[in-house]
Write a structure and sequence with these properties.
By secondary structure, the protein is of the alpha+beta class. The protein is built from three helices and five strands. It has a five-stranded antiparallel sheet with strand order 3-2-1-4-5, with no helix packed on it. The relative contact order is 0.20.
């Protein structure tokens, strides 16, 4: 396997794997940071919706102008029951909510960050194999 990694194709593929992992990690970190900058509000779970293996909750929360907003939000963290108080993050553009999420819904960022971190380390390892000098070759 080490010899096939030292070929031109192996070096290109190792470089692409590393580049893809770096780009993925940067996009993930930017998305997580952006979501943390959204406004927050306390809300109440109205109902829990289950579809196959995924679960969502319908949450009603207040906006800064005093109006109430209802949204169906993905539930990736702990199980929520009707009447439970939650914190909702939302993004306002021109006075309208364009995106919302439960504030404790950071588990997906941790899991994807861990996976992309492993892929990044693998890409670094592949590049070390691909670009390392061959044994017995004079420098």
């Amino acid at each position: 396997m080490a010899n096939s990694m030292r070929s031109r194709r192996g070096r290109v593929l190792a470089g692409l794997a590393l580049a893809a992992a770096v780009v993925g990690l940067v996009v993930l970190l930017r998305s997580a940071a952006e979501q943390r900058s959204w406004a927050t509000s306390e809300g109440t779970v109205q109902e829990r919706l289950k579809s196959g293996k995924s679960a969502s909750v319908r949450v009603e929360y207040a906006l800064p102008d005093g109006s109430r907003q209802t949204a169906v939000l993905s539930e990736n963290g702990p199980k929520r029951e009707s009447g439970e108080r939650v914190t909702v993050r939302y993004d306002l553009v021109d006075g309208r909510v364009v995106d919302a999420a439960l504030a404790d819904n950071d588990q997906v960022f941790r899991v994807l960050g861990g996976v992309l971190g492993v892929v990044l380390l693998g890409g670094i390892g592949l590049n070390v194999l691909a670009w390392a000098p061959r044994r017995g070759s004079a420098a």
